[in-house]
Design a protein that fits this description.
alpha+beta, 22 strands, disordered N terminus
Amino acid sequence: MKLSNKKEAKDEKSGMKQYITGAGGCIVSKSILNGTSKLKWLFREDSKFGNGWIAFGDTDTQEYIDNPKNMTIIDFNTLINIEPTTLNIFYMPIGTDLEFCSDKSGKYFIDTNTRKEIRELVKHPAQIAFEKNLKFLNQENYPVEFFQSLFQKSDKLEPLIVGETDFPSGEVVLADPLAYLGSEYETYLERKIPSGSYPVEISICHSEIVGLRIVATRLIISDKQPIKYEIAMPKGKKIDDFGQSGAWTFFGVDTGLACFSDAKVAEKYKDFIIKWQNENPDKNKYNDYFSALFKKSYEMYPNVQNKYGNFLIWQLPQTPYRLIMLTSGMGDGIYSGYWGLDADGEATELIIPFMNPTYF
């Protein structure tokens, strides 16, 4: 469900404004619909039918509402059209109990559980979590426990080794593979790793708020235990340069995908994309090439992906190199990599956090 950006949009049949797409049905007393009462009480219960909202009018008696014939189910948008203030509370949780008030200060609800006045739009839980997550990401560092907890199996998190990706040169690149890999906007890292093939692990979050998401990924470089983490600095910059002008410690995502890549593989990828686009000038590289591969990946691993696919193990055509693409948490944004370092200061892993799972 999402709020419509065009509140003036109307249902062609009823003439009602459609404020919320997929709002679902709510139970209301017929007195509200026929105008013999005004909205007074609104509460939300756990229901298998509709969205759980129930509305009573100010003249409704217990005897009146106990008669099923006096209650009916309507689209929540209809209730908003009757009383627009109800738009503010749509996303409040199960168990909410509200009293509608109207006085000289305006129209608002009072939460009968907390006595708090509700005068502004209550955001969707996913939007609240998303905004908190934005503030959390891309900090200089986090506790060791945070990084380690990302890949510990729990009721919410499911770690999974996706496969191996190849690093023939050992120069590491972080990028959105569809938007920036092989371009001037990919992020080359200062620290290199030994050439070779390395496992890529993802941490799958099963969230009641946002569904299945990849909250983090890591490139496993060795089996040694990291004792500390530091943000991955771009090529030509040291950790002491963090926060200084030009020291961009993040990479951009504009297609909802991310990857670890080798610099040499990135060049081969660029060659492939240029060749494919020259041969297919009127086609889109995702819609007409990669989407089918992601769908096949989903069909192979349906229990750990959404239907459009959350990861792809792809071998670049006419090369021995494998590249793993994966969805980046809540999608587009900027993300940073963090090196896990052992007691000798050697890199044992490279982690990209996309989400703080405690928010979701």
